[in-house]
Specification:
Shape: globular
Oligomer: single chain
Helix content: 10-25%
Mean pLDDT: 79
Radius of gyration: 21 Å
Largest sheet: 5 strands, parallel
Order of helices and strands: HHHEEEEEEEEEEEEEEEEE
Number of strands: 17
Number of helices: 3
Length: 186
């Protein structure tokens, strides 16, 4: 590799657009150990830079039998046009094939256990999945749903309709002026 190639690669890493395929291929190469030497360093910088730029935290899996870090995705997930913005995936979570993950999704640990997500799963924007639960195959999880119990195969998880709470009197609106809070009405 020449100096010009290295410079163009570095420039694209810092100033380039997010490339979903490139991100997941390089992350996979790091976690499976197929990247070595300078390529491993470059891939590590690229993956960490993209996650930092996108406010994402996608942790690797953990193998108890081998006591090592491993890939927790069975295949690269389908990430929407928003990229990996705000996606948080806990270490130890297992994610199946053909999973679509939208922005601001959290797949987190609870009581030391992480979720197992099946194949062909759609996870809508803002969804939160916590604990040692199993999300079955062919499941759709709607936007902003909080899932903390097992979801059977071929299911859809949605929120109840929004509630409207009416008040007898208008709620005070508080504006800070010179260190004091004074209630105001519109």
């Amino acid at each position: 590799m020449g100096a010009k190639t290295i410079w163009h690669g570095f420039r694209n890493m810092v100033f380039g657009r997010y490339d979903d395929d490139k991100f997941w291929r390089r992350r996979h190469a790091l976690l499976t150990g197929s990247a070595r030497g300078i390529r491993k360093t470059y891939y590590s910088l690229y993956v960490h830079h993209e996650m930092r730029k996108s406010c994402a935290d996608i942790m690797p899996g953990w193998s108890d039998d081998a006591s090592c870090v491993c890939e927790n995705f069975l295949a690269p997930p389908n990430i929407t046009a928003h990229g990996i913005n705000g996606i948080v995936i806990a270490g130890g979570a297992t994610i199946g094939r053909n999973v679509t993950i939208f922005h601001q999704v959290t797949i987190g640990r609870s009581r030391g256990k992480a979720p197992v997500i099946g194949d062909n799963v759609f996870i809508g924007p803002g969804a939160k999945i916590f604990g040692g639960i199993r999300v079955g195959n062919n499941v759709k999880i709607g936007a902003n749903c909080v899932v903390f119990q097992d979801v059977p195969d071929n299911s859809t998880v949605v929120l109840d309709k929004p509630r409207i709470i009416e008040h007898k009197q208008p709620s005070p609106y508080i504006v800070a002026e010179e260190g004091e809070y004074k209630p105001r009405e519109w």
